[in-house]
Design the sequence.
């Protein structure tokens, strides 16, 4: 019995998973044998590697992307009375960060082809908000599945309406927008990455906030560690005989990344391009194998080189003659670890209680009713991919 369960676990193909090498393990072991498990040299080394990869001035490592989004909002001055806008098709953290700051959140419907926040809907909503005097302080576009949003369009609107931009690039490290690395900050104030194990590279848990503005980076560094500074230049002057080697000058948190995590992240950076290339090869193969099935494969905007964190297909339910749930369950029964990214955030019970109604964003609802994420990660073999496609063919009744 126990054996049967174990075998079943082995044969389950997850929708995503980490890829850990011996070099990654060695990097972590080296930290464990060193003097510093936290606040040592690995964190700045990881920050430097990511900043130079992305071509951005500053990178601040944190214990998660959720923490990174929180300090990013605070650094941009988000507080009570402010409004932050994001996409409804995202992980809840993209919206929660605004609520942590006492601000409120609102959602901009998605583009029907990229599933990212729609620039047309954003422009309409901004025009209305301007009339009613409730423009957003910050907009958080999310690069869903790793495909960058129309950043030039969003940036142009930010110049006109005066809002700030945080890119939630939790899915998108290693991707490019118009031939340039996501995270370089050309079209935004802050970019956030996640290093959760299902994401493109992992630190176990972890996140990073990138900015070109020195003061924003400094503010985020301060907030990640209790609001404490040991830089005399930032301290409030005291009597010369008093010994003050650090001061708390803001209300911060313990959002620090450990050196153990940073060492893993830094080691994974070496294979980032390889991981993304592998994801693209898997996507190309899915594209071929799924041709003729009643599904829509992910459309790629010509401006984008996706990180391909996720591979989301949309079911053509009218052709399939089954419900999304039936297809989903058939795939699970066949040992395919499918998932749904995402339920529109405003439909979460917590958000519904805040007053959001079902049907608030029509494109997002349509997407939610048809989307399924199928397995996508660098170590996915062709045989496993074939199994996914066979299961999908059977589940869609062909
Ligand atoms: C994973 C994810 C986050 C949160 O990342 P953590 O590192 O787990 O906190 C935020 N936004 C999006 C879009 C994500 O996918």
Sequence:
């Amino acid at each position: 019995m126990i054996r049967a369960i174990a075998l079943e676990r082995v044969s389950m193909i997850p929708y995503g998973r980490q890829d850990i090498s011996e070099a990654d393990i060695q990097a972590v072991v080296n930290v464990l044998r060193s003097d510093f498990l936290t606040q040592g040299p690995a964190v700045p080394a990881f920050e430097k590697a990511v900043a130079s990869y992305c071509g951005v001035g500053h990178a601040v490592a944190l214990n998660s992307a959720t923490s990174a989004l929180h300090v990013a909002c605070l650094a941009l001055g988000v507080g009570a009375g402010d409004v932050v806008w994001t996409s409804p098709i995202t992980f809840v953290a993209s919206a929660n960060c605004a609520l942590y700051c006492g601000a409120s959140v609102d959602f901009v419907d998605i583009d029907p082809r990229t599933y990212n926040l729609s620039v047309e809907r954003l422009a309409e909503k901004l025009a209305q908000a301007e009339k009613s005097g409730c423009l957003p302080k910050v907009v958080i576009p999310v690069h869903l599945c790793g495909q960058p949003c129309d950043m030039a369009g969003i940036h142009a609107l930010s110049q006109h309406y005066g809002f700030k931009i945080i890119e939630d690039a939790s899915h998108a490290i290693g991707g490019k927008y118009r031939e340039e690395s996501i995270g370089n900050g050309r079209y935004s104030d802050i970019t956030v990455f996640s290093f959760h194990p299902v994401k493109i590279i992992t630190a176990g848990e972890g996140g990073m906030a990138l900015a070109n503005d020195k003061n924003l980076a400094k503010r985020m560094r301060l907030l990640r560690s209790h609001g404490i500074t040991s830089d005399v230049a930032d301290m409030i002057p005291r009597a010369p005989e008093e010994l003050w080697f650090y001061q708390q000058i803001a209300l911060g948190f313990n959002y620090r990344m450990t050196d153990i995590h940073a060492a893993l992240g830094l080691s994974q950076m070496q294979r980032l391009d390889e991981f993304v290339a592998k994801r693209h090869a898997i996507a190309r193969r899915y594209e071929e194998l799924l041709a003729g099935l009643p599904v829509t494969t992910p459309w790629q905007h010509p401006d984008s080189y996706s990180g391909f964190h996720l591979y989301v297909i949309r079911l053509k339910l009218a052709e399939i003659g089954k419900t999304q749930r039936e297809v989903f369950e058939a795939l699970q029964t066949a040992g395919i670890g499918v998932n749904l990214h995402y339920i529109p955030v405003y439909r979460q019970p917590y958000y519904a209680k805040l007053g959001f109604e079902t049907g608030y964003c029509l494109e997002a609802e349509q997407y939610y009713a048809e989307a399924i994420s199928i397995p996508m990660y660098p170590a996915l073999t062709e045989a496993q991919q074939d199994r996914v496609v066979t299961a999908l063919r059977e589940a869609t009744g062909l």
Observations:
- The CA atoms of residues 31 and 362 lie 49 Å apart.
- Residues 64-66, 90-91, 93-94, 142, 168, 170-171, 194, 196, 207 surround pyridoxal-5'-phosphate (CB under 6 Å).
- The radius of gyration is 22 Å.
